[in-house]
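1st attempt posting a full record on here, be nice pls
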Amino acid sequence: MYLSLADQRAHRISRAAASGVPFRLSPVIVWLGIVSLLTDVSSEAVAAVLPVYLTGALGLSILAYGFLDGLQQGISAVVRIGAGWTSDAVDRPKWVAAAGYGLSMAARAGLLVSASVGAVAAVISLDRIGKGIRTAPRDALITTAAQPEHLARSFGVHRMLDTVGATAGPLLAFGVLLVIPQGYSTVFVFSLGAAVLGVAVLVLLVPNLRPQSGSRNRAASPAPACAGNPGAAAPPAGELPARERRGGRRALRTLNTPPVRRLLVAAGLLSLLSVGDGFLYLLLLTSGGFSPVWFPLLFVGTNAAYLLLAIPLGRAADRWGRHRVFLLGHAGLLAAYVCAGFGGPAATMLCLLALGAFYAATDGVLAALMGGLVPERVRATGIAAAQTVVALGRLVASSLFGVLWYALGAQTALWLAAGALALALPAAAWLIRFVARRPVPAAAADAP
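the predicted structure (as tokens):
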């Protein structure tokens, strides 16, 4: 049976990993990690106070908060695929990403003058659109710079640096609120400063790798020799036959393959059952009976777990299978629901640990999964497609959970979500098993 290009590439990567190719980290990934670190200091400082700010200071109902949380989760889906396609079309992912980071920076400034629910919703939308623009081009840069056989581990390094910022941001917010009760505006000022620094590092220090021009990280190890011709080097991961490189529309058709479709369906199904973190934290706040000033520390706990687990789980994904770690992460999300449902100090700690493990096992791993399934010419578009499906699913999940919380109560809504996720996991496992193992005819993958 013929193997698709993605299967051939996966086979080469598997052989390279088995041969013990040493891991070498590209400086591009480090710089992008620093950009994400600064940006996450900015965004997570705001996110850590936003649920309390909206429901406390602005008096928003839990139903309205569910809508806004869904908006925050899903509005980026509007632009993700367009941004990914643009990045692939112009072959300048750095500058497409810079536009997204710049838009989020402008949103931080907007928070300083937003005093109503409508204004805050507009600013949140602007920030999330910026996130939608930047994410896929940035991940395409990481994929280009990384060694193919250590792709998930490279994403893990980036996500680790990203999570350092995501941990520092809530700590910054906590420190401000501890010194200045109700000091939300001060948090927003610090957030803007970190965003400005992140954009400056990206523009001044990150090179514009161009995947279609062959500007791959030179430190990346070469692929092993092709079967049947031991002396010849294998083509670079993601390289397409000449006839397949003609025309953007023909290249885009390479996304329409059974493995890609199955991965998108599985990711979408699981994201429909991913309750927003803010809901879990509000539930822990209510059941634990602690002061809102401690609320940002819940974000710190989750991000600290993410920070500790990002690289180990990325390495495990490269070694044992990215699809397995991706599913394991959603099992961690289910554990977080169960812990939040029981409440109490010990359950709170376990909930934060499980939630951090969920993000460490799914965020970069999903990008690595999709990056390994699609050719370089449409890599940013493919990653954006996966991220769009997840963002739309989480928009629906947060909005629906807000309705269930309002109608049935927090505990009942959470147990319903946990039961649905437990039922969905076997179906997603079946789909992703085919993504990882079942080859498709080459003609199906290469058809014009």
